[in-house]
Amino acid sequence: MVENKISLGIKGLDEMLYGGISSGNIIGLVGPAGSGKTLMSLQFLHASLKKGNKCLYISSNHNETQLKSHSIAYGWDFEPFINTKHLTLKCMKPVQTELRGNEYHLTSKYLDELPMEVNKMKNDIIIIDPITDFISLCKSEVESRSRLLNLFELIKENCSTAVITAESEIDSCSTKSGIVEYAVDGLLILRRVQSADLNEIHHVIQIAKMRWTKHIREIRQYDFTDHGIEVYSKYNVLLGDSGDVKKK
Ligand SMILES: Nc1ncnc2c1ncn2[C@@H]1O[C@H](COP(=O)(O)OP(=O)(O)OP(=O)(O)O)[C@@H](O)[C@H]1O
Ligand SMILES: [Mg+2]
């Protein structure tokens, strides 16, 4: 059977995935603050839109204006895709503040609204950045797991391919609960490591799992550029090679 691969539009990462992610899969992108989760997800979004896919991007961290204006700087203009209805850019606040009398109260409908948004329309690609609040709002591990699996079921019933980002704990490779890591079909882990000479912090990526498909297991370095993220073909620094790490 020839697998239908979807390019992530990230140089070097598609190579690690032998062409991209499998159509219909749900991929987790786990990393600490500032590791590039949002940037990678927007880069994937732009690449998918350019291929004519219908996409839904749900953000709980940035509003629509911020997402559009920051993306322009990397050469990703989302406005035309919004106008042709190829892109739904949805900003959902997980928690609202409500003034009742003299007191502020926190309310949330996110646990119900997020699945509803995912199920509203058929999309080829769904990106959620990040899923962390959805998990944190659940009252128990059982609830988190079942709500996440229900959400994933909806995505699969609609035959969408999804990338879900999740925040990892600082200096850790995994999320607080670890639930996302088990529930997803594929898992990309972003990490920061100190260079061999201790002078620099490098960003590295690893494919921890990719169900039913082969992938490169090496830890590889990536960097931020004015055009988005680029994954390099080698990570020599861990081995003590002080050569130019940007060399491919
Ligand atoms: N053009 C650029 N040149 C160099 N570095 C950049 C550039 N653009 C972004 N960065 C780096 O990307 C980081 C932010 O990436 P991003 O917002 O995608 O991370 P994140 O994992 O989503 O973080 P958070 O968990 O806080 O949302 C910045 O802190 C900066 O280090
Ligand atoms: Mg982010």
Structure notes:
The chain is of the alpha/beta class. It contains 8 helices and 13 strands. Strands 5-4-8-9-3-10-11-12-13 form a 9-stranded mixed β-sheet. The chain has a two-stranded antiparallel ribbon with strand order 1-2. Helix 5 runs parallel beside helix 7. The two termini are 32 Å apart. The C terminus is likely disordered. The structure holds adenosine-5'-triphosphate (ATP) and magnesium ion. The site of magnesium ion has 4 residues, from helix 2. Adenosine-5'-triphosphate (ATP) binds next to helix 2.
Q: What is the overall pLDDT average? A: 92
Instruction: Summarize the helix and strand pattern as letters.
Output: EHEEHEHHEEEHEHHEHEEEE
| Major β-sheet strand ordering | 5-4-8-9-3-10-11-12-13
Number of helices: 8
Q: What is the CATH topology assignment?
A: Rossmann fold
The total count of strands amounts to 13
Shape: globular
Domain module count? 1
* Radius of gyration computed on alpha carbons: 18 Å
Determine the CATH superfamily.
P-loop containing nucleotide triphosphate hydrolases
Largest sheet: 9 strands, mixed
Structural class: alpha/beta
Report the bound ligands by name, code or SMILES. adenosine-5'-triphosphate, magnesium ion
Q: Please name the CATH architecture.
A: 3-Layer(aba) Sandwich
Helix fraction? Answer: 25-40%
Beta-strand residue fraction: 25-35%
Note the gap between the termini.
32 Å
In the predicted model, the low-confidence regions spanning at least 5 consecutive residues are 237-248
Classified by CATH, the class is Alpha Beta
